Amino acid sequence: MKKSTILILLSIVLLPFIVRPAIASEIWIFAIFGLGLNLLLGYTGLLSFGQSTFFGSAAYVAGWLLKHYAINVFFALGIGVGVGALSALLVGYLCVQRSGLYFIMLTFALNQLFYFSAYQWTSVTGGEDGMPGVPRPEFLGVDFKNPLNYYAFVSLVFLFFLYLMKRIVESPLGKILVAIRENEVRAGAVGYNVPRFKLLAFVIGGAFSGAAGVLYAMLFGIVPLESISFVTSGNVVFATLIGGSGSLYGPIIGSFVFIWLSESVSTLWARWPLLLGLAFVMVVMFFRGGVVEAWHRLVLKVNAFRN
Amino acid sequence: MLYALMGLGLSLITGILNIPNFAHGALFAVGAYLLVSTVNLFGNFWVGLVLAPVGVALLGLLIEYVGIRRLYKAGHDYQLLFTFGLSLILAEGIIIIWGPVGISHLPPAILRGGVDLGFTFYPKYRLFVMVLAGLLVLATWLFLEKTRYGAIMRAGIENKEMVSLLGIDIHWLFTIAFALGAYLAGIAGALTAPIRGLSPGMGVDMLGIAFVVVALGGLGNLLGAIAAGLLIGVAQALVAAYWTEASTAVIYAVMALVLLVRPQGLFGIR
Predict the structure, then answer these.
(1) Option in A104, A110, A120 nearest B252 (CB)
(2) Pair A240, A42: CB distance under 8 Å
(3) Minimal Cβ distance to B76: which of A104, A109, A110
(4) Option in B81, B211, B252 nearest A284 (CB)
(5) Per-residue pLDDT reduced to its tens digit, B170-201
(6) Is residue A213 part of a domain?
(7) What residue in A sits closest to B252 (Cα-Cα)?
(8) Which residues of A touch B95 (CB under 8 A)?
(9) Which residue of B has its CA nearest to A97?
């Protein structure tokens, strides 16, 4: 086994001993979310500022089905993936026709459309109060109400999605997406249908976000309105960037840093988004390139010092 | 008309600086809160209306000079993160300074009540806002079209390298453009305060609308921003009359529809 695989398996086993299982689960859930965004941001060069659209939509739909029908967790997960992909198809179809700043603004504006729909449709979504009472039904005798059991489930799902993403970025499709990032015009000239590949990346990213959304809803038993707000979209961008976009494992590191950061500052002060905002600004000013690059720079410095 | 002001300011910033300014809504909110504070301080609405946007413009000057100036080469992802972080800081700063509860603010005594327009009865203050916003849009347009500085700014939208090759300090141009955009957001906020009241979240709602206006009007296309602002405003008002709950969502729906038919926006060329 490779070093990175061992490291991830080791952290999956050790994490619940260090932090509460709920937070440990949240880290892996957010990592799935980040993996999806990273395919867009890191590999295809598309900065989507509307990922919570798919995260939230999937959480609402699957959460509602879980509440009202006796569906099992795997089915709910499948629904989440489907809803995430479908909503990404709708949003993506409009967005991929534009690039650069327009693309960013469109993903954000359509995010707002979904947000306000959820905000107003109180009979289903609960509006500002969120949609509480999302159950974690047992499956084949495994009781998912037990936090550790649910953690194991989340970890397995995460490993599956990590494997899937690894296969995607190493496949010809992944190479085409990188080609689009590096030179869109040339990729088109070579004969690839650039908008269609962008859309495909968008849909895959949406499916990952959807899976994360459902896991999140089942973890906390509620779909908060915030899960579909632009703040969540911004958070996942932050997590991916701080981990280092463009590397497969960047978003995982970013998820660790982000959840740890937000969990520790949110208990400090009610106005913790202020600190989070400061952290964003500081990272941009001083740590561009994220943890992965900072680590590389540190290693270089240590080596230079040794010599 | 207020949407046009917001869109115009954002269009200037995004068009010239080529950055996604997610702090634009927060600047709008700061403008509204500054109005309330200055009015309370000086006891005069007009002093507040003059001072508040200037305060926002100064804030914009500071933001550009300290932060954004260093990010022009950094890529949109980091620029976005910076302005998004900034908007969080400003929104939370508003809560810390002015409190989380919404504030309502009355228009000045002279503009309370309504006027009879013959066919309908219209609140005086709204009429005032419409006229003033219209004048501001006109003034901005005249500034950009008819003055030397305006010409430099438009040239900056078209081709930054060429402008700096001609011996014009491009950094100075960027700072002024950001401050001007901030000023327009600030005065839009100040004018909105007596109509809709104030809440810390008011900036985010407006931010989305401003982006829609720019997406429809075209980046750096100032006439487009004005026209799109009017279109969105009218569409929202019409829907609000029949189906109040959907009036916010309809803005985005209109945008989606327009972009389906015309992906380049109403007036976009790029």
Answers:
(1) A110
(2) yes
(3) A104
(4) B81
(5) 778 888 888 888 888 888 888 888 887 788 77
(6) yes
(7) A113
(8) 271
(9) B263
Locate A254 and state its tokens: 């970013």
At A83, the pLDDT band (50, 70, 90 cuts) reads very high
ipTM of the complex: 0.75
- In eight-state DSSP terms, residue B244 is G
Residues on chain B touching A106 (C-beta within 8 angstroms)? 215, 259
Largest CA distance in chain B: 57
Question: Residue A153 has which token pair?
Answer: 């489930």
Task: For residue A173, give both structure tokens.
Answer: 């499709």
- CA angle (B109 as vertex; B106, B113 as ends), nearest 5: 80
> Is A100 among the domain residues?
yes
Q: For B89, which residue in chain A has the nearest alpha carbon?
A: A274
**How many domains are contained in chain A?**
1
- A-chain CB neighbours of B78 within 8 Å are 241, 284, 288
DSSP-derived letter for residue B184 is H
A52 found inside a domain:
yes
Q: Are B104 and B197 in contact (CB under 8 A)?
A: yes
In a domain, A155, yes or no: yes
Cβ contacts of A304 within 8 Å, gap of 6 or more? none
What range does the domain containing A55 cover?
20-228
In terms of pTM, does the model score above 0.95? no
